[in-house]
Write a structure and sequence with these properties.
The protein is an alpha/beta fold. The protein has helices spanning 24-37, 50-62, 94-103, 178-190, 196-210, and strands spanning 6-11, 41-46, 71-76, 79-80, 84-86, 91-93, 113-118, 157-161, 171-172, 176-177, 218-221. Helix 1 (24-37) packs parallel to helix 4 and helix 4 crosses helix 5.
């Protein structure tokens, strides 16, 4: 039986030519608390450039994850439409840089691959849909044929976005981003005996209620298994809930 999962955290707080994200430190603490509760080993990366992120993922491609039950990737940053995410220096495409690297690793074949993405996916807010957004420049990934020859089947993938395509995500300077804090709170609370899909449903509803409908997380998946983090604990752990947190509205860009 495989052991606990393995996680990578890409936390971009400071940017060249873009506003910094002050919630990054609080969000890191929430993520690490969840991972440590479930004995999940992790690699933490802060303020990496696009080239540095690519180098990390090249190492991931060659790592043997046979002893792990899944891989989890947290990404906290600015973002844009069509799976565009900001590194410290420039933007990159989620599929080309992150997901395709996972699919090149044969040891991850038929293992769940969970991605939790806390970024904006545009500039729209529910109160006002800006018509000019439809004319904004997009940054599609340059996926050439040679890059995709060695990919395994794109199965067992689950990507949970903090917001719907085209819309903003909110955060609080002191208490962290609404999505990441709510996600980690629910993972700690329910993860020992409930499936991830159950938790995701709870998180989606909690974020909507917290922001009075201003933020609506979105799930993209072809994995419908009943993965439970608690099933892979090597020893009993104590589980505690985060304190209820009230957030003030700000948005990532």
């Amino acid at each position: 039986m495989s052991g606990p999962g393995y996680a990578l955290i890409f936390n971009n707080i400071n940017f060249d030519g873009a506003p910094n994200i002050s919630s990054g430190k609080s969000d890191k603490k929430a993520i690490v608390k969840f991972l440590e509760c479930f004995k999940i080993k992790y690699s933490y990366h802060e303020d990496l450039t696009k080239a540095e992120i690519e180098r990390v993922m090249k190492k991931v491609e060659k790592t043997n994850f046979t002893r792990h039950s899944c891989i989890i990737i947290f990404i906290l940053s600015h973002g844009d439409r069509t799976s565009i995410i900001s590194a410290k220096d420039t933007k990159y495409n989620l599929e080309d840089t992150i997901i395709f690297s996972l699919l090149r690793n044969g040891s991850l074949d038929e293992k769940p691959k969970f991605l939790f993405i806390d970024t904006c996916k545009g500039k729209n807010t529910p109160e006002k849909i800006r018509n000019e957004d439809t004319n904004e420049q997009r940054y599609p990934g340059q996926c050439v044929q040679s890059q995709i020859h060695d990919l395994h089947k794109p199965d067992f993938l689950l990507t949970f976005y903090s917001t719907y395509e085209g819309f903003v995500s909110y955060y609080d300077d002191r208490d962290g981003s609404v999505f990441t804090q709510t996600l980690c709170q629910h993972l700690v609370k329910y993860g020992h005996d409930r499936s991830l899909m159950y938790i995701i449903e709870k998180v989606m509803e909690a974020v909507k209620i917290s922001k009075n409908g201003k933020q609506s997380p979105c799930l993209t998946t072809n994995y419908f298994g009943s993965y439970c983090f608690g099933d892979y604990l090597s020893e009993s752990s104590s589980f505690s809930e985060f304190l209820n947190t009230k957030f003030t509205l700000k948005k990532k860009t």
